[in-house]
Amino acid sequence: MAKIISTTEEFNAEISKPNTVVDFYADWCGPCKMFAPLFDQVSQEATDSNFIKVNVDELREVADKYEIKSIPTVVKFENGNEVKRNVGSLGKDALLDFAK
């Protein structure tokens, strides 16, 4: 299961690792709720990637820093640097490809 991040410091530590995939979401977001089980499933299968989740309402400063305007948004980081982004849900195969 993907780790839920609760502080900015924790977020910064996690994205500094190689190959980190972040799901930016909110509890009230219907599409986010539908995407969450798939994100968790892929996090179990793609063991070479680090999967984390960030609630944009709880970590507003992180969401603002990375200009998250719509959710769900999935962002991939390599050693602290954003390398790609997808706004909206992804299917399983697309998410697996995204995480590579």
Mean pLDDT rating: 96
Please report which band the strand proportion falls in: under 5%, 5-15%, 15-25%, 25-35%, 35-45% or over 45%: 25-35%
Name of the top-level CATH class: Alpha Beta
| Alpha plus pi helix count | 4
Major beta-sheet overview: 5 strands, mixed
> Uncertain regions: pLDDT < 50 for 5+ in a row?
none
| Spatial order of the strands forming the largest sheet | 1-3-2-4-5
Kindly name the structural category.
alpha/beta
The CATH superfamily appears as Glutaredoxin
What string gives the helices and strands in order? EHEHEHEEH
Q: Can you offer a commentary on this structure?
A:
38% of the residues lie in helices and 28% in strands. It has 100 residues and is of the alpha/beta class. The protein has one domain (3-99): Glutaredoxin (3-Layer(aba) Sandwich), CATH 3.40.30.10. It has a five-stranded mixed β-sheet, with helices on both faces. The chain is globular. 30% of the residues are buried. The model has no long low-confidence stretch (mean pLDDT 96).
